[in-house]
Structure formats: C-alpha cells, structure tokens
Amino acid sequence: MTYLVKEIFYTLQGEGAHSGRPAVFCRFSRCNLWTGHEKDRARAVCRFCDTDFVGIDGPGGGRFATPAELADAVEAAWPTLGKARRFVVCTGGEPLLQLDEVAVQTLHERGFEVAVETNGTRVPPPGIDWLCVSPKVGAELVVESGDELKFVYPQEGVNPARFEHLDFRSFRLQPLDDHNLDDNTKAAISYCLANPRWSLSLQTHKYLGTR
Ligand SMILES: C[S@@+](CC[C@H](N)C(=O)[O-])C[C@H]1O[C@@H](n2cnc3c(N)ncnc32)[C@H](O)[C@@H]1O
Ligand SMILES: Nc1nc2[nH]cc(C(=O)O)c2c(=O)[nH]1
Ligand code: SF4
Ligand SMILES: [Mg+2]
C-alpha cells in the first residue's frame, strides 16, 4: 500500500471533543465526494469543503511507500522524544480511502493514539482509538457507530435528529463555514439549546489563527 498525503503538521486539534489537544495532523490526499478542484465543486456530492486535499505537495506531504515510512513522517512532526500520549489525527480528503489496519498498528507501535475524521462512507479498519464521523447529505452513511458524530449544520433537508439513534458517545453540530457563518452559528446554538443531546463544535483554529 502506498499512501498519498497532502500535508503533515503539528497543531492543536481545533474541533470536537479533543479540541485544544496537541496533535499531528496527517491529511491524506483525495476524497470520494469531491475531486477537490473548484471547477467541480457545484456538481460534487459534498460542496462546502473548506480544505485543499489535492496532490502531495503540502508541508510534510508526499508519497509514502510503506506504513513504516508513513509513521516515520508522522513521528518526525511530534515535538518530543518518548512515546507517551502522542496523538495523530488522520484526516483529508477522505482518510479511509487509504488508512488501513497495518498503518494504524504501526502508528500504535510508535506510541500514537489514532484519531480519524471521516465522512462515514467507508468502513474503518480495526484499532482506531477515536472515530469522528461527519455525515454528508447525499452520501450513503455506512458507519453507524463511533465516538463522535459531528454534523455540519445546516445541510439542506436534513434534521440532525435523524442521526440520534446511531451508536455514538457524543453528538455535535459544527456551524457550516460559508458566507452565512454567523447565522449558521446562531442556528446551531439554538438547535443545541432546544435539543440537548447535541453540543456545539466550533472550528477553534479559525478563530485562533492556528492551522
Ligand atoms: C475536511 S473534512 C476531512 C475529513 C472527512 N472527509 C470528513 O468530511 O469528515 C474535516 C472536517 O471538516 C468539516 N468541514 C469541512 N468543510 C467545512 C465547512 N465549510 N464548515 C464546517 N465544517 C467543515 C467536515 O465535515 C469534517 O468534519
Ligand atoms: N486545527 C485543526 N483542527 C482540525 N480538526 C479537524 C481538521 C480537519 O481538517 O480535519 C482540522 C484542521 O484542519 N485544523
Ligand atoms: S467529504 Fe470531507 S474532504 Fe471530502 S469534500 Fe466533504 S468535507 Fe471535504
Ligand atoms: Mg480542517
């Protein structure tokens, strides 16, 4: 398995339950719901993506021929020696197009707790320590259990209540970052207050100016 990675960087997890926790981000190239090219956005399944995941040309990105090479690159981004409490967030693009069981195992051997941010359309490999699923309107959701369900809100025609029967430890609304971010944030706050199964997830890195 060759892994195509857009970028690898060290920062604070900005979103969800681990918000504020230092993490290496491993952003895999490619997604099954959008090509990543602006010319295709209007006809993509997922049209609101805030991320450049095309190619392997970002900081720390590249083509890694083995799980060990991938883990070497992730490990190189961690700031201290010693294997205690290391944390990697595998994202993308859609990480589950590439992340496999042996990669997860190899990251574990290097001391990393492995978190994944996924659109929920691909079955995850075993061993993931923190699975965050972010369903997209118009894409089939095949992952029905995990740690965190993080719904970008609003999405046309979808009431978040539709996900409440699924097997997740927490349910979060993340305001859609588009030209209506302020209104979307107010709407997400109102929804959480009226439906307390749901908590707010802010993209804190966008407010803090971190990556
Ligand atoms: C770029 S995606 C990559 C991982 C995976 N493809 C997914 O969609 O979950 C990372 C997270 O950002 C969220 N996201 C993407 N664009 C967003 C936007 N414009 N506003 C708010 N959240 C967004 C996604 O829903 C997901 O939770
Ligand atoms: N700081 C920071 N936190 C994040 N949490 C999820 C992200 C993502 O793009 O998947 C992300 C990101 O891009 N930056
Ligand atoms: S599924 Fe995730 S990576 Fe793919 S286009 Fe949507 S937000 Fe971006
Ligand atoms: Mg992001």
From TrEMBL:
<feature type="binding site">
    <location>
        <position position="31"/>
    </location>
    <ligand>
        <name>[4Fe-4S] cluster</name>
    </ligand>
</feature>
<feature type="binding site">
    <location>
        <position position="46"/>
    </location>
    <ligand>
        <name>[4Fe-4S] cluster</name>
    </ligand>
</feature>
<feature type="domain" description="Radical SAM core">
    <location>
        <begin position="18"/>
        <end position="211"/>
    </location>
</feature>
<comment type="subunit">
    <text>Homodimer.</text>
</comment>
<keyword id="KW-0460">Magnesium</keyword>
<feature type="binding site">
    <location>
        <position position="93"/>
    </location>
    <ligand>
        <name>S-adenosyl-L-methionine</name>
    </ligand>
</feature>
<feature type="binding site">
    <location>
        <position position="49"/>
    </location>
    <ligand>
        <name>[4Fe-4S] cluster</name>
    </ligand>
</feature>
<comment type="pathway">
    <text>Purine metabolism; 7-cyano-7-deazaguanine biosynthesis.</text>
</comment>
<dbReference type="InterPro" id="IPR024924">
    <property type="entry name" value="7-CO-7-deazaguanine_synth-like"/>
</dbReference>
<keyword id="KW-0949">S-adenosyl-L-methionine</keyword>
<feature type="binding site">
    <location>
        <position position="91"/>
    </location>
    <ligand>
        <name>substrate</name>
    </ligand>
</feature>
<keyword id="KW-0004">4Fe-4S</keyword>
<comment type="similarity">
    <text>Belongs to the radical SAM superfamily. 7-carboxy-7-deazaguanine synthase family.</text>
</comment>
<feature type="binding site">
    <location>
        <begin position="134"/>
        <end position="136"/>
    </location>
    <ligand>
        <name>S-adenosyl-L-methionine</name>
    </ligand>
</feature>
<dbReference type="InterPro" id="IPR058240">
    <property type="entry name" value="rSAM_sf"/>
</dbReference>
<keyword id="KW-0408">Iron</keyword>
<feature type="binding site">
    <location>
        <begin position="12"/>
        <end position="14"/>
    </location>
    <ligand>
        <name>substrate</name>
    </ligand>
</feature>
<keyword id="KW-0671">Queuosine biosynthesis</keyword>
<feature type="binding site">
    <location>
        <begin position="174"/>
        <end position="177"/>
    </location>
    <ligand>
        <name>S-adenosyl-L-methionine</name>
    </ligand>
</feature>
<keyword id="KW-0456">Lyase</keyword>
<dbReference type="GO" id="GO:0008616">
    <property type="term" value="P:tRNA queuosine(34) biosynthetic process"/>
</dbReference>
<dbReference type="InterPro" id="IPR013785">
    <property type="entry name" value="Aldolase_TIM"/>
</dbReference>
<protein>
    <recommendedName>
        <fullName>7-carboxy-7-deazaguanine synthase</fullName>
        <ecNumber>4.3.99.3</ecNumber>
    </recommendedName>
</protein>
<keyword id="KW-0411">Iron-sulfur</keyword>
<dbReference type="InterPro" id="IPR030977">
    <property type="entry name" value="QueE_Cx14CxxC"/>
</dbReference>
<dbReference type="GO" id="GO:0016840">
    <property type="term" value="F:carbon-nitrogen lyase activity"/>
</dbReference>
<dbReference type="GO" id="GO:0000287">
    <property type="term" value="F:magnesium ion binding"/>
</dbReference>
<feature type="binding site">
    <location>
        <position position="51"/>
    </location>
    <ligand>
        <name>Mg(2+)</name>
    </ligand>
</feature>
<dbReference type="Pfam" id="PF04055">
    <property type="entry name" value="Radical_SAM"/>
</dbReference>
<feature type="binding site">
    <location>
        <position position="27"/>
    </location>
    <ligand>
        <name>substrate</name>
    </ligand>
</feature>
<comment type="function">
    <text>Catalyzes the complex heterocyclic radical-mediated conversion of 6-carboxy-5,6,7,8-tetrahydropterin (CPH4) to 7-carboxy-7-deazaguanine (CDG), a step common to the biosynthetic pathways of all 7-deazapurine-containing compounds.</text>
</comment>
<dbReference type="GO" id="GO:1904047">
    <property type="term" value="F:S-adenosyl-L-methionine binding"/>
</dbReference>
<dbReference type="InterPro" id="IPR007197">
    <property type="entry name" value="rSAM"/>
</dbReference>
<dbReference type="GO" id="GO:0051539">
    <property type="term" value="F:4 iron, 4 sulfur cluster binding"/>
</dbReference>
<feature type="binding site">
    <location>
        <begin position="48"/>
        <end position="50"/>
    </location>
    <ligand>
        <name>S-adenosyl-L-methionine</name>
    </ligand>
</feature>
<keyword id="KW-0479">Metal-binding</keyword>
